[in-house]
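Hi W.,

Here's what went into the run:
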Amino acid sequence: MTEVKAELVSVGTELLLGQIVNTNAAWISEQLAEKGVSVYYHSVVGDNFNRLAEVFLEAGKRSDIVFITGGLGPTEDDLTREAFQHISGLHIEEDQGTINKMEAFFAKINRTMTPNNRKQAHVFQDSKVLHNSVGIAPGIIVDYNKTLWVFMPGVPREMKAIMTEEVLPFLKETFVLKTVIRSRMLRFIGIGESQLEHNLRDLVSNQTNPTIAPLASEGEVALRLTAKAENNQEAEQLIDQIELKIKKEVGQYLYGYDNVTIEKTVFDLLKQKHLTIASAESLTGGAFASKVVEQGGASAIFNGAAVVYQPSSKVSALSVNDELIAAHGTVSKECAEAMASQVKKVYQSKLGISFTGVAGPEELEKQSAGTVYISICDHNNKHYTERFQFNGDRQTIRNRAVKKAFELLFYHLKK
Amino acid sequence: MTEVKAELVSVGTELLLGQIVNTNAAWISEQLAEKGVSVYYHSVVGDNFNRLAEVFLEAGKRSDIVFITGGLGPTEDDLTREAFQHISGLHIEEDQGTINKMEAFFAKINRTMTPNNRKQAHVFQDSKVLHNSVGIAPGIIVDYNKTLWVFMPGVPREMKAIMTEEVLPFLKETFVLKTVIRSRMLRFIGIGESQLEHNLRDLVSNQTNPTIAPLASEGEVALRLTAKAENNQEAEQLIDQIELKIKKEVGQYLYGYDNVTIEKTVFDLLKQKHLTIASAESLTGGAFASKVVEQGGASAIFNGAAVVYQPSSKVSALSVNDELIAAHGTVSKECAEAMASQVKKVYQSKLGISFTGVAGPEELEKQSAGTVYISICDHNNKHYTERFQFNGDRQTIRNRAVKKAFELLFYHLKK
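Here's what came out:
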C-alpha cells in the first residue's frame, strides 16, 4: 500500500483536566513520521465508556491504524478494553503468559495479588499480545474491520518500551512502506546553537533532501539530518554526503551520533584510556556521580564521590585545609583544586573532578548565584580549573555545572 | 444551564509530526476545569481544509463551546478561517481595528506591511473580536448553530493572553456558571495502587460527587477528589467528608496534599526535629544526595554523602572494615549498616542512611539485579535495615531505591 493513515487516541480524564500534558502523542507521532506512517488525527477522551466507544467508532472509519494509549490498568475507571469490546464484539480472554508474569512478580515482592490485577491480563480473541519489558500490562494488537488496533499502557516508560520493541518492528513487517525516511542525529558540544547555525547558514538554506534541523538542548546542540528515498541505502548515502560538508565547517565540535550522550562518550574515553575518576561535589550534590553511575559497568571507571555540601565536611571527609577555606572561602579556585586532588587521594582514582559554587537562590560568601568553579586534577596532579557564571534557577545551575563538567572532560580526554 | 460541555481543537501539522508537544490543550483545560467548564475531548488536526471542516462539523454537534487554536496566521497553509466558513457559510470581513494596529506596528519598525498580513485581520460577520495584547492576530468568538466557537492563535504566549484577558471573563458573563469544580489531591506512600483501590473499592464505586480517581506514579499513589457544587465552600465540604472516610481506611499511608512531594515532606520533618543527615551510596551513586540538595536551604539538614561505588572506596572513604566485606560481601545487611554508621561519623550528622545493592543489568556477588539494602542509623546509633527486591532496568531500580529511602525516612521520622 502506498500511504498508511494512522491516528492516535489518548485515554485519560487527567489529560482533559490539564493535569498532565500529552507527551505520548508527540513521541508516537515522531516515531511514525520517521517510518513514513502519516498521522492525521490525535484525540484525547476521558475514562468514559460511551465517549470512548464513540471515538473508537469514528477512528475505525477513517484510519488504517489506530494507536490507543491508557485505560488498560487494573482500576474500575480503566475502560479502554470494555469500550472496544462494545464496538467490536470481540471476546475478551485472559492471557496466561501475563498471569504467570504477574504471579511471579507478586511472589518476588512478597505481596498477594489483588483480584483486580487480573484485569491487566485481559486481551482480545485472536489478538497479538505485546511483551511489556518494563511493566506488567501488555500491549495488544488486533486486526478488526480492516483497521489495525494497537493498545498500549499510558505510562510513557511502558508505552515507549512496547512501541520500540514490539510495535515498530511489527509495522515494518506488516506494511511495505514505499518511501523510507531515515534520520541521523549529529551531536555537538562546546558551540552554541546560533553559532552553529551561522557557520552552516548557506548549507542549511540551500538544503531540501536531506533536511537539516538544528535542535538545541541543555548545554549542547544537535543537527537532525532527514532523508527521503526509495530505500535505506540511498537515504544513508544522501545523509553521508551532507554530513561530510557539515564536518568541514564544525567537525571539531562533533562528539557523537543519534542516541549517544556526552556522558556515554566521556565514559568510553575513560575506559579506552584505562583511567578512573572520582568527584568532589558541593553545589551539585552528587548529581555528577549519579550521571556517571547511570552507565552500566560504571565500576570500570568510577571510584566514587564525596558530596561535601558543608564547609565542615570538606574538612572532615576530604581533609581540605581549613586555613585554606578561611583564607579563600569555599567558592574559590583554591578550594576547587584542593577538593579535586583530595578526592583523588581518598577514592584512589587517577583523575579527580570537583564542583564548588553557588546554586542559589541566595548568594554565598558574597558571590552571586550561578558562580561555579570546576577543577580537573589529572594523573600527574596537574590542575585544569575554570570559573563559570551560569544563569537560571537552582536546578538549572546545578544541571549546567554537571553538563559543563562532561564537556571539559571530553576535550581534556580527546587530546 | 447546569453543565457546559466544551472541546478543544488544535490545528497544526507540526503537532501531528510530533515536532511540538500540545501544551496549549493542557493549559486551556486546566483553566476551564477551574471555571467549572467540562472538557470532553481534545483533537489535533493538520493544516488540511477537508479534515479541518470535518472535525469542526463533528465538534459542533457534540459541544456547547469549541476552542480552536492555530491556523490563523498570514500564510497559505493557515486554513482555520476558510474551513470554518465552509461549514458555517458565515461571511469573512476585515476588522478595521486590527488593520490599524498592524499598520501602526509596521510603521513603527519601518517596514511595509506585506499583503498577506491583511489576512490576520479577517474575522466572521457578527463575531466578537478578541484583543491580542502580545501579538497581532486577534482572537474571535462567534455564536453559530447553538455552539460558541472560540478561535485563538496557536502561539502559547498569545493564546494565554487572549484566554486570560478576553475569553474567560466573557465566559463568566455569558454562562452563569452554576457549578464550581474543586479538586484535592491526597498523596500516599507505602501502599500500591491496586491495594489502595482494593481497600477503597466500595467507597469508590458508590461515589459520584466528589469523584475519586486513583493516580499511580513511581513508588507512590495519589487520589484526586473532585467535587462539583454551587460554590467553593460547598465543594470543599463535600471533599472534607469523603476525605474523612478515606482516612478511616488508608489514613496511615497519607503523607501530603496537592503538590507536596515526599522529598519535601521528609525535608520538613528533619528540619522540625533539628536533625541532620548524610548518605552513603553505592548503587544509587549520589542520586539520593542530589534529590535532597534540590531543596533550597538543604544545608540546614544535609551534611553530605559518600558515594562509595567500589568496595575499595567503602574502605578508603568510610573505613568500612574490609574483613566485614570479605565475610558478608558488599550487598549485605552488615555492609549497609557499617556504611550508615560510618557516614554519620565522617560527615558528623545525626542520622546516616546507606544504599548498597545491585543496579544491574548483571548480577553481583551472586545476587540478582534489583536486590538492595537500605539502612538508617539513628541518633542513638540504632539501625533500621531492610532488604528490597526492585524490578525494572538499571535507572528504574536506582530511582525506586531512592524513592523507597524517602518512604522509610518518612515513617521513621513521623513516629
